[in-house]
Design a protein that fits this description.
The protein contains seven helices and 14 strands. It is of the alpha+beta class and 260 residues long. A hairpin with a 5-residue loop joins strand 9 and strand 10. It starts with a strand and ends in a 6-residue tail after the last helix.
Length: 260
């Protein structure tokens, strides 16, 4: 069941979200013990993005309560998505869309770790890259294009030729000296990336597509799967079994979850 402010949602409630696409969200993996890694960071993201999208403050205490209700009776682990939007939004008067409501949906969680990913590079820059907004057409169209070409997903490259992020994940690299490198770029600040940056030595640098293909290894980070190795970028293979990737995965798994 999908809920809006803790109550079953109606088709009328969803129409503004479906037709206008004005909103933002976060997705969180709920582990078997009911905890969520980076829960506080997810709440901070929702509050920050609500001010950016709707110009309003968000009561994250109410959000937690709605998530608890949405998880009641659900099998764990799972992934819960919290979407914030104004059901009264009108296309002609979007300046009045400033009343945030909370949509909670739940889906099953995949097993971890996932198989290594082959990514196709695409030149693309997201609108409002620092906001996790619901405007996903460009992102999903790029992913579909990559999958039709035989890849698993897409890796975005800016107009300057530098790597930024994946479709729904951040990307990191392991250089030839074994150091972890995160791209310096306008990207969505992922929670999993932030948790790893707090706990694992790294450097941040601009990474061109050519430099990315010359790295020893590369990986994707996302709340639903943690750390996932990249097997290739375009036709260039990478070491999906690099020991640094194993250490990053172990580091992530060792992070204690937070309770709702």
């Amino acid at each position: 069941m999908v809920t809006l402010d803790g109550k079953p949602v109606s088709a009328d409630d969803l129409l503004p979200l479906a037709l206008l696409n004005l909103g933002h969200f976060t997705s969180m993996r709920v582990d078997a013990d009911g905890t969520i890694r980076g829960l506080s960071l997810h709440m901070e993201r929702l509050a920050r993005d609500c001010r950016a999208v709707l110009g309003a403050d968000l009561d994250t205490g109410r959000v937690r309560e709605f998530v608890r209700q949405g998880l009641d009776g659900r099998d764990l682990p799972c992934v819960v998505r919290v979407t914030v939007y104004d059901p009264s939004a009108d296309l002609g008067h979007l300046a009045d869309a400033n009343d945030p409501h909370v949509l909670v949906s739940v889906r099953g969680a995949g097993t971890m770790p996932l198989a290594p990913l082959r990514a196709m590079s695409v030149t693309y820059e997201r609108d409002l890259p620092h906001v996790k907004h619901v405007g996903l057409l460009g992102t999903l169209h790029a992913r579909r294009t990559a999958q039709l070409a035989g890849y698993g997903d897409v890796l975005f490259v800016g107009r300057d030729g530098c790597v930024t992020e994946g479709s729904t994940w951040n990307v990191g690299f392991v250089d030839r000296d074994g150091a972890v490198v995160w791209p310096r770029a306008d990207v969505l600040p992922g929670v999993t990336m932030a948790l790893l940056q707090e706990r694992a030595e790294h450097r941040v640098a601009t990474v061109t597509l050519e430099e990315a293909k010359g790295m020893a290894a590369a990986f994707a980070t996302n709340t639903s799967f943690g750390v996932r190795a990249l097997a290739a970028i375009d036709e260039t293979g990478l070491d999906a079994g690099h020991p640094v990737l194993d250490r990053l995965g172990e580091t992530y798994q060792s992070i204690p979850g937070e309770t709702l």
